Amino acid sequence: SEVGLRKKGFFGSQNSRRPSLKIKLNHMDKQAELNGLTMLTFNNNQQDFTLMSQTMGYAIYNAAGSPAPRCGYARITVNGKNLGVYAHVESMKKPLLRRGFGDDRGTLYEGTVVDFFDGWEKSFEKKNGKDKLARDKIKKLTEVLEQENLPDVEKAIGKYVDLDSFYTFWAVEGLIGFWDGYVANANNFFVYFNPKTEKFHFMPWGLDCGFEKYSKISNDRRAPISVKTKGRVAYRLYQVESCRKRYARTLVKLMDEHWDEEKMIAKIDRSQIMLKPFLAPSQVRKFR
């Protein structure tokens, strides 16, 4: 059947010969779907020559209980031309929300180079759900972050952000060295206003630049590699000693329970064998 097809990408992922793609299965036939999905997302791994960052990174988020897309691989051909191996990333749609939160009735926003600054609330792009209440909560959270002398920063932020969820999200981003996500660069994230808790939950996106020691857009080699605090929520929390300790506890717990280097290396070896025969010529030169 006929479907909708478009190129996608922002800055670092753009490629005129191997663009990232979105396929809308119900573009023509409104009933069309595949196992409940109506949108397929294929990322070109432009910034990830290893082809491992997205599949391994999202898997760690999900294993840690921080909702994130599922991710696999796809070989893409267009008019008989092999475009090579793409990351097949679960789209940020209702099936993901139901799986991650048990409820898809909330409001989902995408954050692209945006943070909770005064006057920026309209820069959060609504993707799903009702806007009025959740947009107002964005304004309220921004007002909290604008206040300098809060008696209890964590409690004030926790009125609008699910803190258990955020600390896990934050710690995973630090653990996997994702330098272009929310806490590292106020980019590549979604926030979901959960109707069950009436609080925001953060989710990762665009994870093709993880597992790197340093940011490619910041040259400060003195900055700690175990924590990232550019995102305003993370920054305000990290100024409080008890919050720093909570972050450290969360990070250590993640490493104890979900960071198994032997298993990760074995997965990389298996993936390399599986993917190598299907690489595009441009990928063969870089795959390592």
TrEMBL record:
> Transmembrane region positions?
none
Q: What InterPro entries has UniProt attached to this entry?
A: Spore_coat_CotH_CotH2/3/7
Q: Name one Pfam family in it.
A: CotH
Protein name (record): Cellulosomal protein
Q: Which organism is it from?
A: marine metagenome
